[in-house]
Amino acid sequence: MDAYAISGALARMSLFAGVDGDSLYLISRRARELSVLRNEQIFAKGERVLGFYFLLEGKVKLAFLSSRGNEKIVEIISPGQSFGESMVLAGHPWPFYAQAIRDSKLLFIERDVFLELLQRDDGLKQHLLDGMSRRICDLFSQMEALCLQTSRERVVGYLLREIEQSRARGNDSHLVELPDTKANTASLLNLTPETFSRIIHTLERENVIEVSCRSVRILDLPRLQQGCGC
Questions:
Q1: Dihedral, CA atoms, 4, 10, 16, 19, nearest 10 degrees?
Q2: Domain ranges of the chain
Q3: What is the pLDDT of residue 49?
Q4: Does domain 3-142 correspond to CATH entry 2.60.120.10?
Q5: Residue 218 pairs with which residues in a beta bridge?
Q6: Which residues of 179-217 are buried (b: 16+ CB within 10 A; e: fewer)?
Q7: pLDDT per position as a tens digit, 150-165
Q8: Residues 6+ apart with CB under 8 A from 134
Q9: 56-79 mean pLDDT
Q10: By CB atoms within 10 Å of each CB, which of 80, 166, 169, 221 scores lowest?
Q11: pTM exceeds cut of 0.85
Q12: Which helix (H) or strand (E) holds 190?
């Protein structure tokens, strides 16, 4: 991608909404495009934070490993989303690792470039604060789901959130694309793969959803919402 194409990609990113074209072009000239293969690690837990990332294509998971080697996924990043911008400000090492779960393309924006723009653009500061606030709210919602919701409620809630995100991107609002393996989605919801598969099959038998490979089509949205207490 040339600088103008990168600038256009950044302009579609909520973090940079309202940032003037000249500033975006300057960032784009110093942004790096990265291509990573499926299962390739982007950074490791404990590494120094050198910048943050914007996903153009593919899927990326942010995760921890327990002392027993069990993986817990905290977030699955989809195209159009960024990750790591709050860590740029914190100045701490990465508290999790990032790994591609599909062949992926990303933009990497260096810490110094981002901090330089933050100092001169109040609008960007506000967008950053808004984004961090949303992430905090999402984390609290995730904690509530893990602590208080049943396994079925977690799966239904996940499908409903994916529908909302699909609608926001202008895609089919009744179609959910799962990551490359059900195990990744199960880890995100703190479920075993077997439990996740059983709930998906139950919803399919009830004619609430239809499953084809990694695609889940919502057949009866009102009944799905009832399953989450919505």
A1: 0
A2: 3-142, 150-227
A3: 93
A4: yes
A5: 209
A6: bbebbbbbbbbebeeebbbebbeebeeeebbeeeeeebe
A7: 999 999 999 998 888 7
A8: none
A9: 90
A10: 169
A11: no
A12: none
